[in-house]
Amino acid sequence: MEPVKAETLPTTEASQHLKQSISEEQEHTLWEKVTEGISHFFHTASGRFRTHSTTAGANNIILAAHDDNTLLTRLTARTGIDLGLGNGRNRDSGPVRLLGIEYPSCADQGFQDDFKSRVWITYRNGYPPIKPSTYTSDVGWGCMLRSGQMMLANAFLFHELGRDWRLTRCQDDKGAWDKYVTILNRFLDTPSAPFSIHRIALLGKQFDKNIGEWFGPSTISHVLKVLLDDHKDIDMGIYVATDGVMYLDDINNECTKGHEGWRGTLILVPIRLGVEGLNPVYFDALKACFSLPQCVGIAGGRPNSSLFFIGVEGNHLVYLDPHFLRPAVEVKHPASYAPEDLSTYHCETVRTMSMEAVDPSLVLGFYCSSKQDLKSFCEQAVNISHGRTPLFTIQEKAPEFQDRDGDVLSDGDDF
Q1: How far apart are CA 83 and CA 323, in angstroms?
Q2: Which residues make Cβ contacts (< 8 Å) with residue 407, sequence separation at least 6?
Q3: Is 143 considered catalytic here?
Q4: Which candidate in 108, 114, 189, 321 is catalytic?
């Protein structure tokens, strides 16, 4: 599918409403939501969704699942609308694991608070052009770039605020609020933000990706590493595994690079777990990843349908979907932001996808806060591989004959 520039998108009454305040956006009419779904459906290749239950709990978290159905039900699932069509799967919500924490169900209050605290980054429009191109929106090509942003942003939450941080308590703690706003500011859609869509797209040119081209798992991993290594003010390391193998000597070097002591590090593992689809032999190991406290998510998918997976319920993965078009958030002084200004960076609709529908091209993300945490991660990674086909391997150091400075492949490599 050819990238769709923002200038070619039809102007509708709904798109004008998107430019109004966040509080008004939360009260979309049915027509606005369906229009948003149409925008998603025609600009991505992943529109096979339907709702499978009504709202769960007092906070109106809505469950949606991936399946074949009519255009109308696909649109309503994407927008989180329940039209009462009676075509849901009606499966009960069972135990769910979200980034290392287990909850009784998706209706559990603890799960809802945790889920809504994860950073959700989607398509945006109306931002400054990504020069030298004229793109002012990433609809149709930016989903993996947005998934990569989500991976890094949620790792920053772990690193700077801790796994127990919750958005609902953040406003009462000025120190935590300021850190939270600082994290989101790094991803605003402006050339000055260190991890903006602008910088990611431009850096992709070093990996044979033109502005407006989709990234694969390996490319986004290496682009994020280059950007984070270049941003010296952030005291967090990043390591990208080679061919599904983690080398502990390289990780240790990354964790201590330029420091007397240890620093928290994000470990990215680009992998391919099948040919056309996700090989079932990897199902159990992939689900087990979400039981690891170091897990910060899994990004992946085929072109134009990348998703960011953050949990598992039975044989379904819980995900955040970047394929929603929102207006770019206004850039202003960090102290000027109110909660409603940043509300579109959090999702209240729980969506799940059958593991059979997951694309095999993925990047796994793990955050290790200390040397002891890395040791614990390695031990648990070995344990979850017992009796299962492992997703990756861990070795002390790379073979001496390996060219450690070899070129990074571009997406031929993305798999």
Answers
A1: 21
A2: none
A3: yes
A4: 321
- How many other C-beta atoms lie within 10 A of the C-beta of residue 383? 11
The answer to whether residue 50 sits within a structural domain is no
The total number of structural domains in the chain stands at: 1
**pTM for this one?**
0.79
Residues in the chain: 415
Q: pLDDT 10s per residue in the chain (415 long)?
A: 333 333 333 333 333 333 333 333 344 334 444 444 544 444 443 333 323 333 333 334 444 544 333 333 333 333 332 222 222 333 456 899 999 999 999 999 999 999 999 999 999 999 999 999 999 999 999 999 999 999 999 999 999 999 999 999 887 899 999 999 999 999 999 999 999 999 999 999 999 999 999 999 999 999 999 999 999 899 999 999 999 999 999 999 999 887 778 899 999 999 999 988 899 999 999 999 999 999 999 998 666 689 999 999 999 999 999 999 999 999 999 999 999 999 999 999 999 999 999 999 999 999 999 999 999 999 999 988 887 888 999 999 988 765 555 555 545 555 5
CA 1, CA 304: separation in Å to the nearest integer? 8
- Residue 242, φ and ψ in degrees, nearest 5: -110, 120
In a domain? residue 12:
no
| Domain-embedded: residue 116 | yes
Comparing C-alpha atoms, which of 402, 154, 168, 189 is closest to residue 295? Answer: 154
Boundaries of domain holding 130:
60-70+95-395
Q: Is 202 helix (H, G, I), strand (E, B) or coil?
A: helix
Among candidate residues 282, 295, 284, the one with its CA nearest the CA of residue 101: 295
Catalytic residue among 108, 222, 323, 411: 323
Active-site hit among 143, 170, 289, 368: 143
Q: Say whether 289 is catalytic.
A: no
Residue 403 is assigned to a structural domain of this protein: no
CB-based burial, 249-270: b 16+ in 10 Å, e otherwise: ebbbebbeeeeeebbbbbbbbb
